[in-house]
Design a protein that fits this description.
The chain has 295 residues and is mainly α. The protein is built from 12 helices and no strands.
Amino acid sequence: MNPLVTNNLRGICFIIASTGSFVANDSFMKFVLADTPPQQVLFMRGIAACLWCLPLLVISGHAKAWRQAFNVWILLRAAFETLAVCSFIYALSHMPIGDVTAIFQISPLLLLIGGSIIWHEKIGVVRYGLIAVGLGGAILIAQPGSASASPYAIFAFGCAVFGAGRDLAARKIPHDIPVLVATFTTLVSVMTAAGIGSFLFETWSQPSSTNILMMLTAGFLLIGGHTFMFLSFRFATPAVLAPFYYFFTLWAVLSGIFVFGNLPNWLSVAGMILIVASGLLSITWDRRHKLATKN
């Protein structure tokens, strides 16, 4: 088999595994959220993830690069990720996992707007139209004004906005900084913020042995998700991998149905289809535009 095809297939397998790991991590957190305050859940998950990540840093030899964790772009990325995760956990605690994840999928579309405003990247009428379609899909999922609408949907939208800010900051991180260093910095940032938030605003709940085990598993899956995502880009280009990013929605919907028994209504399904379709069409349009520019 052609080595390029083999590497692309490996990259695709890794990104599918990555999205599955992240959603499995979210599923374990949602279980624990049933009897534990949101910030405490994040704090516990953060401790577990750091316990898994720290040995990897040492084994890989990247622990020596700890000073690079204070790079301004890494700190800015960590700050946006902290806001995104805190928003996500509040949405997840009150909404179906499929709905929350699908709304978050508008983040790449918001990233286009951010790139246009900050980096002056050209979007064009077609892309603005696709962004509008994606946002319309998110509104269908949130269903404002309906009896099934959740006020916590605003946190899902906030997560998407902060996620776009995180990715904008990530573009400026120097390539010589190890991914594990950036990941560990983010884990510590989220854990610290959640710990402070839990101490100030929540009543601590004594975790059961089952919940501790779930958080250890969630931490492991979180590190697995980051690792698989990193490996996917080692084997394949972003252009090849981009369509498979939307496996997030597929895994989340399957988890919602088979794990939590949340069957999305037809408006939510329509919204998910619009978000995924707008994202995929945006990727296709970008490829054609680049080919046309080259020719």
